[in-house]
Amino acid sequence: MNPEAHQHLTQVDPVMGQLIASLEPCTLKPVPQRSPFESLVRAVAHQQLHGKAADTILNRFIALVPGRRFPRPEDVLSLSFDSLRAAGFSGAKIAALQDIARQTQAGVVPSARKLQSLTDEEIIERLTQCRGIGRWSVEMLLIFKLARPDVLPVDDFGIRDGYRVSFGLEELPKPKVLRELGERWRPYRTTASWYLWRAADRAKHAKVA
Prior knowledge:
Elements: H1 3-12, H2 14-22, H3 36-46, H4 51-63, H5 73-78, H6 81-87, H7 91-106, H8 112-116, H9 120-127, H10 135-144, H11 157-166, H12 175-181, H13 189-208
Helix pairs in contact: 1-2, 3-7, 3-10, 9-10, 11-13
């Protein structure tokens, strides 16, 4: 929980203030032990899949390299297409994993230490050189690995839907519009994003109930 972020968001945006008051405090916690390589592989696994399905595929993938907490780039490049396909990855995702592994070996994907010294936009520019890695995937790394405080993933459906339900809109805001609207949340747009995700989850559960 970041009291400064909550105070700022409440002051600049009454609707966000209501969200903060009605939901549990932000519990966003980064996973710093994950390497940039692991974070990107996990992001690819989660693309266009529900969390449980992606986790199942990742568990099968990890099991392909016994004795390691998570496969290394050289492990990925040594695994056959068929074994990766059997784990549940599509052909496009296998190509992405192999390119991420090669780009890590080449230094395009930097070490965790080097990553800390780069700005958000520098990280996005470098990592989106990898096949299958777009801005959204890097933004997830910025939030969940690096805990960067001012990230707003405007292309994320949950973020857009959270804004829609919170502000009483009939349609999802366009990413460009949401980026402009989110300027008022600086420099704590990551915390705002977390609350928009929770707002979308709450609305979805209320509809089911």
